[in-house]
């Protein structure tokens, strides 16, 4: 991750050094993530990076690295609580009447009227908070989060008299939305083009009018009352921009930034409470699956295709949150997936997994090709939640255990026999597919060197020198490979690996492929190093070095 940041951001190597410092500390995973977010989401990331590095350097003789980072983390939480607290609403009657008039007596987000009342975006009480004044101990932290200029502008706006300035810091909200916004579940985004010095004609035309909602990481969960597309019920407008101005972009952006640490507090509470016991899902048992399989077998292909297309449309109608997804979740624990040309390969991989793998995998109910490039798979849902969706509350110890579970899974995978005439092939003996190939298919191959030659076909560099030489010099066995054990595809229940999904690229590939494909999306990210390091150790570090070399020199890959 550090390398990616240094390569793609505008701040460069000095900015990225802070992530190396954070990763080198033995701190809880949630604290690691919180510090990453502080630096990465600051309006002045270069200054935030310098702030952390300077604090570490200044305290090097008196405190451990861990103690210094802990103190920064605790100060972030204090700052967040101060900046999001709920002040008493002792509004002037004229201001209160104006806010109801501007917002039409409706919640700014949902348009509902029940229980709506005004709320501040940023509590005016911070004007009197000595910790946030220029000499206060939290002021430097606030200024690197917002920039010094924005901090001064914020205090100036909050301290300015008049109804118009007060309205820029007020919205009508219903109780559940008010609670979610106050506690940092989402940020209200207002395009900067909607305010001076820009003219109304400068704003890009969009359906949402330059306003939308953004879940705040790391626990990006939106209240169910909010529309699935994260849009406000209508584009905000006002009867008079001068006398009844809309909420200020500066204050909305400030709230979004200072809300991040609130998640840390909740996550720490969740970790302390332990994993909740979730109810058993209602799903088909073995007999029900077999009955459904046999029923579908007697239906012609064309009729099943029409049936699945109909189900696809019905699901999107009844559950708009699934619109646009190629995977649809159905009642009774069933899943309908519209795949690509490798649909048959995925269906066959699921059959093999059911025969050889102990850990939960989707159970195949039916598959049918629509044409040569697409098809449907009906299968069962895997229990648990994707690791990527709960990574924010996974501890290092749990992540290491999941890595060990993953190692056992890979061992089971490697027992699946290859019955084709090719050494490297998909589950049916045909060409191998992989997201790494960007929807191309390669092979099949009778030798590992043939696969390696194809891998390096578009790469400039000496094959007889490291790191590319590692791919030829080392002897690599070929095993059955999932090819995409990304954290999104790993499902976890109560801190243990409970299932693996998305088998479309499975096949027989060189033994190192599973590891380098898993690490491909993460780089040096600490969670990935902990997880996949626990599963694979350092066995394929040379091959991973070669893969990074390839990615840096093959422009069509990235």
From TrEMBL:
Looking up Pfam families in the UniProt record yields: APH
Transmembrane ranges, per UniProt, are none
Do you know which InterPro entries this protein is assigned to? AGP_Transferase (IPR051678), Aminoglycoside_PTrfase (IPR002575), Kinase-like_dom_sf (IPR011009)
Q: Which positions fall inside the Aminoglycoside phosphotransferase domain? A: 341-544
Q: What is this protein called?
A: APH domain-containing protein
Task: Specify the species.
Answer: Trichophyton interdigitale
């Amino acid at each position: 991750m550090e390398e990616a940041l240094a390569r793609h951001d505008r701040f460069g190597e000095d900015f990225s050094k802070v992530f190396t410092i954070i990763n080198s500390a033995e701190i809880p995973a949630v604290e690691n993530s919180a510090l990453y977010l502080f630096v990465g989401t600051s309006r002045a990331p270069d200054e935030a990076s310098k702030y952390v590095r300077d604090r570490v350097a200044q305290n090097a003789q008196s405190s451990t690295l861990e103690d210094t980072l802990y103190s920064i983390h605790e100060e972030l939480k204090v700052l967040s609580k101060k900046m999001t607290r709920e002040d008493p609403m002792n509004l002037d009657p004229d201001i209160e009447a104006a806010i109801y008039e501007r917002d039409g007596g409706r919640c700014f987000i949902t348009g509902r009227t029940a229980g709506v009342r005004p709320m501040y975006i940023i509590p005016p009480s911070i004007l009197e908070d000595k910790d946030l004044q220029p000499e206060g101990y939290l002021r430097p932290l606030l200024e690197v989060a917002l920039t010094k200029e924005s901090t001064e502008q914020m205090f100036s706006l909050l301290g300015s008299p008049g109804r118009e300035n007060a309205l820029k810091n007020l919205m009508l909200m219903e109780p559940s939305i008010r609670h979610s916004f106050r506690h940092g579940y989402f940020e209200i985004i207002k395009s900067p083009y909607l305010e001076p010095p820009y003219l109304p004609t400068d704003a890009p035309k969009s359906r949402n009018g330059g306003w939308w909602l953004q879940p705040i990481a790391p626990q990006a969960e939106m209240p169910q009352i909010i529309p699935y597309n994260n849009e406000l019920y209508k584009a905000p407008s006002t009867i008079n921009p001068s006398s009844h101005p809309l909420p200020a972009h500066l204050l909305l952006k400030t709230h979004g930034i200072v809300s991040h640490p609130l998640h840390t507090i909740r996550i720490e509470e969740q970790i302390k409470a332990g994993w909740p016991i979730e109810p058993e899902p209602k799903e088909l048992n073995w007999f029900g699956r077999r009955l459904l399989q046999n029923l579908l077998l007697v239906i012609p292909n064309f009729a099943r295709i029409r049936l699945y297309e109909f189900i696809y449309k019905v699901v999107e109608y009844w559950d708009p949150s699934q619109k646009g997804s190629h995977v649809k979740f159905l009642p009774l624990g069933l899943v309908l997936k519209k795949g690509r040309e490798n649909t048959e390969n995925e269906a066959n991989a699921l059959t093999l997994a059911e025969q050889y793998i102990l850990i939960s995998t989707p159970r195949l109910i039916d598959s049918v090709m629509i044409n040569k490039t697409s098809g449907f798979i009906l299968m069962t849902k895997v229990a648990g939640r994707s690791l990527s969706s709960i990574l924010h509350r996974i501890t290092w110890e749990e992540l290491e255990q999941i890595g060990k579970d993953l190692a056992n899974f890979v061992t089971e995978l490697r027992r699946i026999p290859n019955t084709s005439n090719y050494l490297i092939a998909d589950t049916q003996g045909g060409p191998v597919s992989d997201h790494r190939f960007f929807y191309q298919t390669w092979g099949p191959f009778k030798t590992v060197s043939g696969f390696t030659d194809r891998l390096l076909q578009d790469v400039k560099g000496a094959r007889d020198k490291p790191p590319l030489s590692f791919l030829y010099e080392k002897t690599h066995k070929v095993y059955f490979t999932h090819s995409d054990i990304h954290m999104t595809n790993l499902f976890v229940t109560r801190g243990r690996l409970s299932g693996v999904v998305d088998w479309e690229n499975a096949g027989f590939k060189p033994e190192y492929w599973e590891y380098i494909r898993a690490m491909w999306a993460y780089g040096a990210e600490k969670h990935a190093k902990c997880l996949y390091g626990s599963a694979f150790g350092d066995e394929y570090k040379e091959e991973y070095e070669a893969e990074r070399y390839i990615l840096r020199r093959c422009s069509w890959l990235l």
